[in-house]
Specification:
There is one protein chain. About 70% of the residues lie in helices and about 5% in strands. By secondary structure, it is α+β, with helices and mostly antiparallel strands. A five-stranded mixed β-sheet has the order 2-4-5-7-6. Strands 1-3 form a two-stranded antiparallel ribbon. α2 packs parallel to α4, α8 packs antiparallel against α9 and α8 packs parallel to α10.
């Protein structure tokens, strides 16, 4: 599936550089000639596999035919390695053609066969990497990382820097898919250094395209265009890079659109469309047409753009691409509204909302399945370790038994050897007893682990049910609110200016009420998820987080003529960026909201630390809070000021308290000497250790670099 937020970034990603050397399509006739001339059946199998590789990027059915031929011939001549490789290439051909589930159903047979053939670690690693790539395409990112980890461990022993660089690139793309663009960016930059040393053009093309998208997300459009241009220049006109070339041109078009250069954007979209037509990428062509229609409507608001988007929506339904369905519905709603076709606009708006809720529900299910896959992988690793320990134990017993027989054989010759044998016997017996006890302990530990895993599964299922209930409740509550808000927006745009003053107040009152109810539903949903959401710990610079909050609140700050001062905010801390950012944004926005009308708000953000915690204080000069209410403000739905005076639901500080508690800290209020109050919260330094443990893949990647 394509991700409309990334445009076409993930479609062609990196699979062609993961494996053995490619065979050009021009050489296909030569390979066929070699097949007809050779009498060695094993050589024929290998040549058929090369023919699969030469056709899998432009002729799916031809590649499948050659893979089937190689497989049946390998079985006929009892050639297990050729059989395993033909299965692998069949799976790879399916994955490139976007048949991801079929590819994953095919791969296990090849993996099982290669495990039984000695000296085929490289080919086994290729299977793991293909599985990782395919799971990544299905957005099962944790499972993808686990398979990449298996492949990486095998390649560590093979000392293949080119494949390691490709793995680093793929791991970066997984973090990209998880939304962690900072980590993804570090992987791309480090992979560029390795690929430049190797003069690996393929790896450089994908890395620069990835970096370009990261700059685009950060709204660094000039830097994004520079990286996309590098990727395009490296790709050139080589047919091997035709799919990534299409992606790069599409990304350049979108970036120019965001910069306002619509003519330039259309030029790039035209080139992209020609490529997608030539390679027969129907889904990719739908994304191109959607973006082109969007640009042309921005230029002239032509009705023809809506007909193109309807065709795009039909293609999205054909390929079951809900993201494309949602995006096309949103654009249609916007265009219909601009054209005054409000009924059609409302229908498309409602459809986009339903698709968005469906995608959110699917994301929750994918997260649960990913956690289950992670747990299963850990259990398999544990079993493998125990099997290795058992093998070592059996080898040890066999060795000790051999020594005992030798000593017993020389008992009649040397009495001294008899004494040594006696001692060795009792030593061996003692070791055996100790090992038996340890095995019993391991068995008991395994039973305890199994019980804990069962409890964990029940806990996960319960949390999923609660989150699904919260999502469903939110949807059921927000659906009528969206309808009210949508109709009110349409009615207000059409009749507000012509209405009498008393009727205008009715319009405003309904709009405020819908907004207030919508805010309450959002806060309730956020509050319900506050305990279940796991922390994503990373190293942060407090100053950067505060600056992000300042950017988010820029309008409120300028409107209130407020100032935000930073003191000693250059500290590094380990925390969940999103949750700490939300805590700071809530406290600062409250300080701006509850300001004194007689003076401009001045907000001071200060930090300090002791041996176990880092403390952050947000001090204001606002209207303040009575000390008798200090303990109540963190309670749910606590409203010290009335709703008529200030907007809000009374859940903001309660959510802050929950997030701080998850960081093993505390939050409290103190009265200022002059005006206002100071909110202070703490973050445990022990989260640093948890963060180091939770990211082994980064350490492995740095060791490789």
């Amino acid at each position: 599936m394509k991700n409309p937020n990334c445009i076409k970034w993930f479609l062609p990603l990196v699979i062609s550089v993961l494996f053995v050397g490619s065979v050009c399509a021009d050489d296909a006739d030569s390979l066929k000639l070699l097949v007809s001339q050779t009498d060695d059946e094993r050589v024929k199998v290998d040549l058929y596999i090369q023919l699969v590789h030469s056709h899998m990027y432009d002729d799916f059915e031809m590649a499948r035919t050659y893979a089937d031929t190689a497989y049946h011939l390998a079985r006929e001549i009892n050639y297990p390695f050729g059989e395993a490789r033909s299965i692998y290439y069949q799976a790879r051909n399916l994955a490139i053609a976007n048949y991801f589930n079929e590819a994953l159903d095919t791969l296990p047979e090849a993996i099982d066969m290669l495990k039984k053939i000695s000296g085929k670690e490289k080919e086994l690693a290729q299977c793991y990497i293909l599985a990782g790539w395919t799971y990544k395409k299905l957005s099962k990112h944790h499972t993808a990382l686990m398979y990449y980890d298996k492949g990486y461990k095998l390649y560590e022993n093979l000392e293949d820097d080119r494949i390691k660089a490709t793995l680093m690139l793929n791991i970066g793309s997984v973090h990209h898919g998880l939304g962690d663009i900072e980590t993804a960016g570090r992987y791309y930059e480090e992979t560029i250094v390795v690929n430049e040393k190797l003069n690996n053009v393929s790896g450089l093309v994908y890395c620069y395209n990835g970096l370009g998208y990261i700059h685009e997300v950060r709204k660094e459009y000039e830097e994004a265009l520079a990286d996309y241009s590098k990727a395009g220049e490296l790709a050139g006109e080589d047919p091997v890079f035709i799919r990534i070339k299409s992606t790069v041109l599409h990304n350049m078009a979108v970036t120019n659109m965001k910069m306002g250069d619509l003519d330039k954007a259309l030029e790039y979209m035209k080139e992209t469309r020609e490529i997608d037509i030539n390679i027969g990428d129907e889904l990719g062509l739908a994304y191109v047409d959607m973006t082109t229609a969007r640009i042309r409507f921005m230029q002239s608001k032509k009705v023809a753009s809506t007909s193109i988007l309807r065709k795009v929506h039909e293609t999205a339904i054909k390929f079951e691409d809900k993201q494309l369905q949602k995006q096309s519905a949103e654009y249609l709603s916007e265009m219909y509204a601009e054209l005054g076709m409000y009924k059609e606009a409302f229908e498309q708006h409602k459809l986009a909302g339903i698709l968005k809720d469906s995608i959110s529900s699917k994301d929750v299910q994918l997260k649960v399945k990913s956690l289950e896959s992670k747990r299963q992988f850990e259990l398999e690793q544990k079993k493998e370790e125990m099997a290795q320990q058992e093998l070592i134990f059996q080898n040890s017993l066999a060795y000790e038994s051999k020594i005992k027989r030798i000593l017993l054989g020389g008992l009649g010759i040397l009495m001294l050897l008899a004494f040594v044998l006696y001692k060795a016997y009792w030593t061996t017996l003692s070791i055996k007893k100790q090992l038996l006890v340890k095995n019993q302990n391991l068995k008991e530990a395994e039973e305890v682990l199994e019980q804990k895993n069962t409890d964990l599964k029940k806990y996960i299922e319960l949390n999923v049910e609660l989150e699904q209930f919260a999502g469903i409740a939110s949807h059921d509550l927000k659906a009528p609110l969206k309808t009210i808000g949508g109709f009110m927006g349409i009615l207000k745009r059409r009749f507000y200016n012509a209405a009498e003053d008393n009727y205008k107040s009715y319009f405003d009152m309904v709009e405020r009420s819908a907004k207030s109810l919508n805010l309450l539903v959002d806060d309730l949903l956020q509050f319900s998820k506050a305990n279940s959401q796991a922390l994503s710990i990373e190293r942060l610079l407090l100053k950067d987080v505060v600056n992000e909050v300042k950017e988010n609140l820029d309008f409120s700050i300028s409107q209130s003529k407020g100032q935000i001062k930073l003191e000693n905010c250059n500290k590094q801390l380990y925390a969940d960026r999103i949750k700490i950012k939300q805590v700071l944004q809530n406290l600062i926005s409250n300080a701006l909201k509850f300001r004194d009308t007689e003076r401009n708000p001045i907000i001071e953000v200060r930090s300090w630390e002791d041996e176990s915690h880092i403390f952050v204080s947000v001090k204001d000069n606002g209207i303040g809070i009575s000390e008798e209410h200090f303990d109540k403000v963190f309670e749910k739905f606590s409203r010290i000021k009335t709703e008529q005076e200030f907007e809000g639901t009374g859940l903001g500080l309660s959510i802050c308290a929950k997030y701080v508690k998850k960081h093993e800290g505390d939050i409290w209020i103190e009265r200022n000497e002059g005006h206002g109050v100071a909110f202070t919260f703490s973050i445990s330094k022990s989260l640093c250790e948890a963060q180091e443990v939770s990211r082994p893949m980064i350490a492995a990647q740095k060791a490789c670099a």
